[in-house]
Amino acid sequence: MPDLVNFDEYRRGRFYQEWLRPQGCADAANVVLEQANSSCPMLMTVIPGRQMLDAKMRARMRLVAPHASRAFMINRTIEQKRQKSMALADVVDRLNAGVILLDSACNIVHSNPAADAILDAEDVLRSVHGRLLARSSEANAALRDVFRGEAEVAAAVATDRKIQLTSRDGSHYIAQVIALPSLLREGNAGRTRGAIGALFVWMAKLDVRACAGSIDRTFELTPAELRVLQSIVEVGGVPETADALGIAETTVKTHLHRVFAKTGTSRQADLVKLAAGFSNPLVH
């Protein structure tokens, strides 16, 4: 049996001096179960009591030690994976963007706190008996179309498909579909369903001060056009933008047509999706 490399040093250690020796356990067999770079390897100590260690007892230890070592290694691997899972769940829970895991019937398998807040508001999205429903029938149809199966989710991800959601007050949200790897698609024990994809939901806000440089370089918008774009995204249509900016509706329309031309879009809904690309879904 492999004892510690320096058994004399082991005898001088606290474990032997303060625990073994006071009990009269001068005779003990030690097996290193794990070699590590630390100064304290995992050790199995067998104390025979009044009897001395004999060949038969050592033979039994030779049979037991590999199994004990393997069990220790398995336990350590499980613990490492558990810690990684907990760390990942903690990261997801800290996101300010809502994350909702869905199965092929749009049943909610899991949601982070940010998503729970969105669902509790029962505005753009809500949960009805555990099933995700959108406020608009168009968004509902889009969700059902995407989450029919793994192939549809994969196709939505490949085409960078986003689903636009509009709240009662006119605020716009974007829902991005994310495919889940096979490990996360498996259902829990005793369950017949598992998540096939995730919905990443955040408010489409255009922070002009933070994004002005990127937008200007990309589309070469004037300050007035940029203000109209921001208002269309955050406030609503032409009349609402005119009231918010204190300008005539005809002026808003003029700037809006120029924004359409420069950005290559033709609808206000397209501007919302464009703005989502410049907004940060991780922070508000």
TrEMBL record:
Region forming the signal peptide: none
Q: Which domain of life is it from?
A: Bacteria
- Looking at the record, the residues that make up the HTH luxR-type domain are 214-279
Among InterPro entries, the record links this protein to: Sig_transdc_resp-reg_C-effctor, Tscrpt_reg_LuxR_C, WH-like_DNA-bd_sf
Q: Tell me the SMART domains matching this sequence.
A: HTH_LUXR
Matching entries from Pfam families are given as: GerE (PF00196)
Per its record, how is this protein called by name? LuxR family transcriptional regulator
Which species is this record about? Answer: Bradyrhizobium guangdongense
